[in-house]
Amino acid sequence: MKAMTAAIATLTLVATPAFAAPGPFFSLANTDFIVLIGFLVFIGILLYFKVPGKVAEMLDARANSIRADLNEAKALREEAQTLLASFERQQKEVKVQAKRIVENAKDEANRAAAQAKEDIATSVARRLAAAEEQIETAKSAAIKEVRDQAVLVAVAAAREVIANQMTAEDGNALIDDAISQVGAKLH
After folding, report:
1. Distance CA 76, CA 53 (A)
2. Are 32 and 17 in contact (CB under 8 A)?
3. What CA–CA distance (Å, rounded) separates 115 from 111?
4. pLDDT for 17-40, tens place per residue?
5. Suppose 32 and one of 18, 78, 151, 180 were both cysteines; which one would form an S-S bond, judging by CB atoms 3.0 to 4.6 Å apart?
């Protein structure tokens, strides 16, 4: 490092425009010479206090700090990718679970609809049976009423016919015959 600094200083000294100026270069009247002396003293002070080493140390420390920051950023990125993968996995699981819930709800709705249809069919069958039973009952009642009415009419007609054709002797014979039949059936 020192050899490079010396080479740069020598090249700077040789390449100055002061060498092209007329008159003696190594004179205190020459401003270029004074500036060159000041520059060399400044470089010497920097080298004496080991400023280039300290600057290199600071740059190394800064590079190490940047490297540590990059490593931390890399670790954070990996952690973020892991979290992202975890969230994506959870999202897929939630989608699957939601799909399963919807399918279960549809199945339950279909079962409930089938049960409702079955219940309605059973209710209709019961109502039809009850209606048919009521119709049969009404029919039987109507037939009985017609028979009863026919019996009453027949009895009334028979009474009239018997009353018109029967004499007192025939009536007494019929009463005696009915009493004997009732007596025979009761004993």
Report:
1. 34
2. yes
3. 6
4. 555 556 666 777 788 888 999 999
5. 18
